[in-house]
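Protocol step 4 of 6: structure prediction from sequence.
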Amino acid sequence: MEKRRSEARGRGLATRRRLIEATARLCEERPGGEVSVAEIAKAAGVFPNQVTYHFGSKDSLLVHAAFLGLLHDARRIERIGTQAPDAAAFRRNVARAVLAMPSLPSVARALAAGIAKPELAPVVDQHLRLLFRQSERFVGRLADSRGWRADRPLGVEVRTFWSTALGAVLLVRAGVHGTNADLDLAGALTIHDTQATAEPE
């Protein structure tokens, strides 16, 4: 009996994973566009009613998928950050790459869903906490290995940076006119090279 329950749990987790990954792919292929339950189910190879069975609603699934895409993008950003020769290049390159992430439109919709539907807020909060922890660990390891320092605790550093980036996307989604050139996202980072008295910008 216990073995059957364990197998059922394993199948359920596998189905959830397929649904999230299929939804993330569809959202990346169609940024800003609507994705139907039928399309998601077909892409994941499951029945449409399994969306509501495993997630309660399409909106909940979209939130999970959006943040899966964001975490994948964040790992790519880490590789870009690791290649930076100094702290000034790190700030510039990371800021530029974050604003070009393909997952941002989907994440903006997820944040809006969390505001509009209180039952989704804990899901959004869970994923943001994971993003913050992952980013803090990365920046901490890189800063320690390079001798870089931040002017504030790393937890505050990464929350400030991501809040600025995601807030900018929400403004664009709300119809505020502007371009990436109007936002100094690099200025939201205080990482600097302690070996240099001044860094060329």
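Step 5 (inspection) to follow. Confidence is low (pLDDT under 50) at residues 197-201.
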